[in-house]
Design goal:
heterodimer, A: mainly alpha, 1% strand, B: A middle domain of Talin 1, 4-stranded mixed beta sheet, 26 strands
Chain lengths: 243, 817
C-alpha cells in the first residue's frame, strides 16, 4: 500500500499546486452556498424556512459534485498520457492498480478539503439553532461516498483518452447518468422497477444518508461502483500492453 | 506470433477479471438487498423502531399486511400546505414495513397488491375498495374531451384474526412508525374486545347485509338500460321520459325487489331489537336501518301506484327521488356499521362543551326551528331574511367545527365525544378535555370534572385567559356605513378555571407571559392602498405574547422528545405550596418559559413593535411554569357539600321525548351514592390554548334572541352585521397564529395519546415531529451571516492557495540560490 500513499500524496500536492483545485473548489463552494441559501432558481430562502437544518446542503451538493469532480479528475491520467509521463510512471515499481488507486486517493484528498470547507454551513446553523448532529454526520459520510464514486468514474473516463476536455465531458456524462438518469431509465423499462434494480439509482441510495441513516446496502453499492470503476480504469491502463 | 498471443491472453484475462468483479459486485449487492444493517445517527433514533413498536409487533401472532403502492408515484403532490415531495417515499414505506416484519419475527406477513388479473382491477382500484385514500398529482391526462387526473395510492391494510385496520394514506415517512404502531396496538385491543361483543357485531352485520342486498337490487333496477327495457317490452310504454322508464323497470322487477328488501323489517324487529340499547353505535345502526326500511316501504307503495295521492308528486318522480334517498340512507347505514365494527375497545375522549370552549362538534339542534322561522317570515320578509342569514352563519359554524373534529381527531384515529354542560360523563369516555372555556363552568360541569378526576380518568385543562386580536371588525354605528376596523384589542375571557383548579392545589394565573428573546411571530393581516386599489397583505412580526418554550421536563412522556413549543397568549400555572410540599403527589413542571420571560398583569399594549420595545425595556422575571402535570390522591372539591343536581337537558329536536327532561329523584339518589370523596387521578393543566380558539354559536351570534325579532328595527340589522363581524374576527384571530398550528397540533396529539394511556405512542410521535426552529434573526443579521458563509470559505481556500504559492516560490528561490 505504501506506493499508493506516496502516489496519493504526490497527486494531492500536484492538484493543490495547480490552479484547477482553487477554481474548482471556489466554484463548488460558491455554488453550494448559493443553493443552500437560495435554493434552485432563488426561490427557497433558507432563513424563511426558520428551521435549523443542513438538509439543503445535502440536497444540492451531489449535483454540484457531479459537475465539479470530473473537472478535477480529467487531467489525472489523460494529461499523463498526452505528455508521455505515464511511461515514466510505469517504469517505477508500482502496479497499474496502485497507480489508479493513488490517483483516486489524491483526488479524494481534494474532495475532503472541499467538503471540510463547507463545514462553515453547519457551523452557521449551529450558531442559530440546534440541528441534529447525527443527521449532519450521516450527510457528510454520504457526500464523501458519492463524491468518491464520482471521482472513480472521472478517473475511469480519464484513462480512456489523452484529451482532458474529452475526459471531462465523458466523466460528467457518467456522473450525471448515475445521479439522474438511472431512475428515469429504469422507469422507462419497468412500470415498477424491481426493488433490487431500483437501488441502482444514486439518488435513492443517497437519500438515506441525507436523513442521517447509514445503510449497509447503500455503502456497499457506492463501494461496488467505485471498485468496478477502479478495476475498469486499471484494465484500460493495462490495455496499452495489448495495443 | 508469441507476442500477439500474450497480448490476446492479457486482454482476455483482464476482461475475465473485470467480468468476475462485476459478478461479485452484483452478487454482494443482491445479497445485501435483503439485509437490514443500518446505523441511525439521528439524535432521537428517528429512523429506528423503538422498543414500544417492537413489543407491539411481537404481541400479535398472525398479522397480514396488504400493501398498496401505485406503480408510478409522482415526484410531488399538491397539498394546502404546499407541494409535498414523494421522491423515494415508496422505498421508505417498504423499508419501514420490512422493519416491522423483521421485528415481529415471522408473525407479520407482507403481501404486495399487484395489478391485476381480470376482475381484480388496478392497484388503485384495489386500494379504494380496501378503504384507502387516493391522491392526485398536478399532472393530468387528456382522454378524449375530458381532463383526467391520475389517481395514486400508498397505504396498507392490517388484518389480525377477525379484525382489521387501515393506514389510508402514508405520505409522512416521519410518522410511519407512529401510525403503524398505533394500528398494531389498536388491532390487539380491538380483537380482544370484539370477542366480548360477538353477538352485537353479528347482529349488526346481519342488518347491514340485509340493507346492502336491498340497496343493490334497487339501484340495479333503477339504472336499467335501454336494451333491457326493450327486451321486457317496456320501451313503448315509457316513451322517452327516463323517470317513467325507471318506474316501468322497477315495476317489472317488483317481485325481485320485494324478495331482496322484505327481510329488512324482520331484521330491524328481530336483530335490531336485540341490539338496541346494548351499544350506542348499534343503536345508531338500527335507527338508520329503520329509516331505510321506511323509505323502502314508501318506494314499494310508489312503485305499485298506491302513493299517487293528492299533493304528492307523480309516481315516476317519487320513485326516482326515493331510489336516490335509499342510496343515501344506505351510505348512512354503511357508516354506522363501520363505526360499530370499529368500536370494540375504542375509548372515547370527552370534550366538555357549552362554555365557549374549543368544541369540535356540530350543535345538536339547529339555531331556529324551520317551522318557527317560516312563521316569523309570514309577516315580515326582512326579518325572515335576517333569521335565515343567522341560521346560515350558525350552519357554517357547525360545519367548521365538525370538519375540525373530523380532520384533527376522527381521521387521526381518536374517538371523541361531546359532553354537554348538563350531561354526565359516560362510562366509555376514558379521559376528559376542558379546552379553553371562555365562559364560567357551572356547578354541574365542575362536579363532572371533579368526579372524572377522582375516578382516575385523565383530565386535561387548557386555558385561555386572554383573547388577542390585532385587527378587529365592528359593526358600524350608522346603518349603511362600512364595517369598522378597530386595531389591537386584548380582552380578558370570563372563564373560571382558576377557581375550579384551586380546589386541586393548582394556581392558574391570569397574568400574560411575555418574552423578549424567545418568541414566535404573529401574522398581521392588513389592507394596503396601491394605485387606488386595495390589497390585502400579510406580514409576520416577532411577538412578545407568543413565547417559545424550550425548557421541558425531559422525564415526562409528553415532552421527552420535544425541542421547542410556541404557546400563544399563555399565562402561567404553579402548584400551591401545600401541593408542592405534599409527597403523595407527583408534580411536574412540564413546560417552562425562558429566563428572558416576563409575567405582568394584563392587558398590555398589543401592537407588536410597541410591545417589543416595552418588553425590552422591562427587566425579566422568568422562568414561569406554562404547563403542570399533577398525579396523586386528589380530594373532591365537593366533599362535605350538597352535590349539584343535573340541570334539565337542552331540547333535542331529534328526540322530543327527552326534551327538557329533569333528573328524577331516583337518578339523583344514585348519583349521590356513586359520589367519590377522594381518588387517584391525573391532571394536566396548560396555560395556553395552543392557538386553537373555539368557534361557538353563542359567541358569534351573541345576543341572538328570536323573541327580539318579532318586530323589525335598525338594531336587528346592526346585530346581524355584528354577528358577521364576530365570525370574521374568529377567522382573523386564528389567522394570526395559523402558522404555528401544525406544530401545536402534534403536541395536542401527544396530549390525547397521553390521556388515552398510550404513553409509548407519545414518544414515537415526537420522533416524527423533529422540527428544530432556528433563533429569531433580524434581516441585517441574516444578511451578514449569509455573506460570511458565502464569501468566507471560498476566500479561505484562495488564501490557502496563495500561501502555498508563496511557499513554493520561496522554496524554488532557495533551490536556485
Amino acid at each position: 500500500m505504501k506506493p499508493v500513499w506516496i502516489l496519493a500524496r504526490r497527486e494531492m500536492a500536484a492538484t493543490f499546486d495547480s490552479p484547477i483545485a482553487y477554481i474548482a473548489g471556489t466554484l463548488f463552494l460558491v455554488a453550494t452556498g448559493l443553493l443552500f441559501f437560495f435554493g434552485l432558481g432563488g426561490t427557497d430562502d433558507f432563513f424563511a424556512g426558520r428551521e435549523a437544518t443542513v438538509r439543503p446542503l445535502f440536497d444540492y451538493a451531489p449535483w454540484v459534485l457531479a459537475v465539479i469532480l470530473p473537472a478535477v479528475t480529467m487531467r489525472l491520467l489523460a494529461e499523463e498520457k498526452r505528455q508521455g509521463t505515464l511511461e515514466l510512471l510505469v517504469t517505477l515499481p508500482v502496479t497499474d492498480l496502485q497507480i489508479v488507486l493513488g490517483k483516486l486517493l489524491g483526488a479524494v484528498g481534494f474532495l475532503v478539503v472541499a467538503l471540510a470547507m463547507t463545514l462553515v454551513l453547519p457551523a452557521l446553523v449551529l450558531s442559530i439553532g440546534h440541528p441534529d448532529i447525527g443527521a449532519i454526520v450521516g450527510g457528510y459520510v454520504g457526500l464523501l461516498l458519492i463524491g468518491t464514486t464520482f471521482l472513480a468514474l472521472g478517473v475511469m473516463a480519464s484513462t480512456w483518452t489523452q484529451n482532458q476536455i474529452v475526459a471531462f465531458i465523458v466523466g460528467l456524462m457518467l456522473c450525471m447518468f448515475f445521479w439522474t438518469a438511472t431512475d428515469a431509465l429504469l422507469r422507462l423499462v419497468f412500470d415498477q422497477p424491481p426493488p433490487a434494480l431500483a437501488l441502482l439509482s444514486f439518488q435513492s441510495q443517497f437519500a438515506d444518508f441525507a436523513r442521517g441513516v447509514i445503510d449497509l446496502r447503500s455503502v456497499l453499492y457506492f463501494l461496488s461502483v467505485t471498485t468496478l470503476a477502479v478495476l475498469a480504469s486499471t484494465y484500460a491502463l493495462r490495455s496499452r500492453h495489448w495495443q | 506470433m508469441a507476442e500477439t498471443k500474450n497480448k490476446s491472453n492479457g486482454r482476455v484475462d483482464g476482461l475475465v477479471m473485470l467480468g468476475a468483479a462485476i459478478g461479485v459486485a452484483v452478487l454482494v449487492n443482491a445479497l445485501a438487498v435483503s439485509t437490514a444493517v443500518r446505523l441511525d445517527l439521528t439524535e432521537q433514533q428517528v429512523h429506528t423502531l423503538s422498543e414500544a413498536s417492537v413489543t407491539a409487533a411481537r404481541a400479535l401472532d398472525d398479522v397480514t399486511v396488504t400493501v398498496f403502492i401505485s406503480r408510478k408515484l409522482p415526484e410531488t403532490i399538491p397539498t394546502p400546505q404546499g407541494k409535498v415531495p414523494l421522491k423515494g417515499i415508496d422505498r421508505a414505506f417498504r423499508d419501514k414495513l420490512a422493519e416491522y416484519a423483521r421485528a415481529a419475527g415471522g408473525h407479520l406477513k407482507l403481501v404486495y397488491a399487484e395489478d391485476g388479473s381480470p376482475g381484480v382491477g388496478t392497484i388503485e382500484e384495489q386500494g379504494e375498495a380496501a378503504k384507502l385514500e387516493t391522491f392526485s398529482s398536478t399532472e393530468a391526462q387528456v382522454t378524449g374531451s375530458t381532463l383526467k387526473f391520475q389517481k395514486y395510492v400508498l397505504g396498507a391494510t392490517f388484518h389480525y384474526k377477525t379484525v382489521s385496520e387501515v393506514l389510508p394514506k402514508a405520505l409522512s415517512p416521519g410518522f410511519y412508525e407512529f401510525e403503524m404502531t398505533q394500528i398494531l396496538l389498536r388491532l390487539k385491543e380491538k380483537y380482544e374486545q370484539s370477542q366480548l361483543m360477538k353477538e352485537p357485531l353479528a347482529q349488526g352485520k346481519a342488518i347491514f347485509d340485509g340493507v346492502k342486498r336491498c340497496n343493490e337490487a334497487v339501484q340495479q333496477a333503477a339504472k336499467v338500460e335501454e336494451a333491457k327495457e326493450q327486451d321486457a317490452g317496456l320501451s313503448l310504454k315509457g316513451g322517452n321520459d327516463p323517470n317513467q322508464k325507471r318506474l316501468n323497470a322497477m315495476q317489472a322487477a317488483a317481485a325481485d325487489l320485494d324478495k331482496a328488501c322484505a327481510p329488512i323489517s324482520g331484521l330491524v324487529a328481530g336483530d335490531g331489537a336485540k341490539l338496541k340499547g346494548k351499544n350506542r353505535f348499534g343503536d345508531h345502526l338500527v335507527d338508520n336501518a329503520a329509516e331505510f326500511d321506511k323509505a323502502w316501504q314508501e318506494l314499494k307503495r310508489a312503485t305499485s301506484g298506491q302513493a299517487s295521492a293528492e299533493g304528492q308528486p307523480p309516481p315516476a318522480i317519487m320513485v326516482q327521488q326515493l331510489a336516490l334517498m335509499l342510496d343515501q340512507l344506505f351510505h348512512e347505514v354503511d357508516r354506522a356499521h363501520q363505526t360499530l365494527t370499529d368500536s370494540p375497545g375504542r375509548k372515547a375522549i370527552g370534550f366538555l362543551c357549552g362554555h365557549d370552549e374549543f368544541c369540535p362538534f356540530a350543535e345538536a339542534s339547529p339555531l331556529v326551528d324551520p317551522s318557527v322561522a317560516a312563521m316569523l317570515g309570514q309577516n315580515n320578509p326582512m326579518m325572515k331574511q335576517i333569521v335565515q342569514a343567522a341560521a346560515q352563519i350558525s350552519q357554517a359554524i357547525d360545519e367548521t367545527n365538525a370538519k375540525i373534529g373530523d380532520n384533527l381527531f376522527t381521521k387521526r384515529g381518536y374517538a371523541i365525544r361531546r359532553i354537554g354542560p348538563d350531561e354526565a360523563i359516560p362510562d366509555d369516555v376514558a379521559a376528559l378535555i376542558v379546552y379553553a372555556p371562555r365562559k364560567p363552568l357551572g356547578e354541574y360541569a365542575r362536579y363532572q370534572l371533579d368526579q372524572a378526576l377522582l375516578a382516575g380518568k385523565p383530565v386535561v385543562v387548557l386555558a385561555q385567559a386572554w383573547q388577542v386580536a390585532l385587527l378587529n371588525m365592528q359593526a358600524p354605528e350608522d346603518l349603511g356605513n362600512e364595517m369598522r376596523t378597530d386595531w389591537s384589542a386584548m380582552v380578558a375571557t370570563a372563564g373560571n378555571l382558576d377557581e375550579v383548579l384551586k380546589a386541586y392545589g393548582v394556581e392558574l394565573s391570569k397574568d400574560p407571559i411575555l418574552d423578549s428573546k424567545h418568541v414566535e411571530t404573529v401574522r398581521v393581516t392588513g389592507l394596503v392602498n396601491k394605485g387606488g386599489l386595495q390589497f390585502q397583505t400579510q406580514q409576520d412580526f416577532p411577538y412578545a405574547l407568543i413565547p417559545v418554550a424550550s425548557d421541558f421536563d425531559r422525564t415526562h412522556a409528553l415532552t421527552r422528545s420535544i425541542t421547542s413549543l410556541s404557546l400563544p397568549y399563555t399565562t402561567s400555572v404553579e402548584p400551591s405550596k401545600e401541593l408542592a410540599a405534599n409527597e403523595a403527589f407527583e408534580v411536574s413542571r412540564v413546560i417552562r418559559s425562558s429566563t428572558s420571560s416576563l409575567r405582568k398583569p394584563g392587558p398590555v399594549a398589543v401592537v407588536p413593535q410597541t410591545l417589543k420595545q416595552w418588553v425590552l425595556d422591562t427587566p425579566p422575571n422568568g422562568p414561569h411554569t406554562l404547563a403542570l402535570a399533577v398525579s396523586g390522591p386528589f380530594k373532591s372539591a365537593f366533599a362535605g357539600r350538597e352535590i349539584p343536581k343535573r340541570p334539565a337537558q337542552a331540547v333535542d329536536p331529534k328526540d322530543p321525548a327527552s326534551a327538557g327532561q329533569k333528573p328524577t329523584d331516583a337518578e339523583y339518589e344514585l348519583a349521590k351514592r356513586a359520589f367519590k370523596a377522594e381518588g387517584k387521578g391525573k391532571l394536566l393543566v396548560i396555560a395556553s390554548n395552543l392557538g386553537i380558539e373555539g368557534l361557538s354559536r353563542s359567541d358569534v351570534l351573541a345576543g341572538f334572541d328570536l323573541g327580539k325579532f318579532q318586530q323589525f328595527s335598525p338594531d336587528s340589522i346592526k346585530a346581524f352585521t355584528q354577528w358577521q363581524a364576530n365570525f370574521q374576527n374568529w377567522q382573523i384571530r386564528i389567522g394570526q397564529v395559523s402558522h404555528l398550528l401544525n406544530e401545536n397540533l402534534q403536541f395536542l396529539s401527544n396530549i390525547l395519546d397521553w390521556a388515552s394511556a398510550h404513553e409509548a405512542l407519545v414518544a414515537i410521535r415526537s420522533k416524527g415531529d423533529a422540527r428544530r426552529p432556528m433563533d429569531d434573526l433580524d434581516p441585517d443579521k441574516q444578511k451578514s451571516l449569509r455573506l460570511a458563509a458565502l464569501i468566507g470559505s471560498p476566500l479561505l481556500l484562495i488564501l490557502l492557495g496563495l500561501v502555498r504559492w508563496r511557499l513554493r516560490l520561496a522554496r524554488n528561490r532557495s533551490l536556485n540560490v
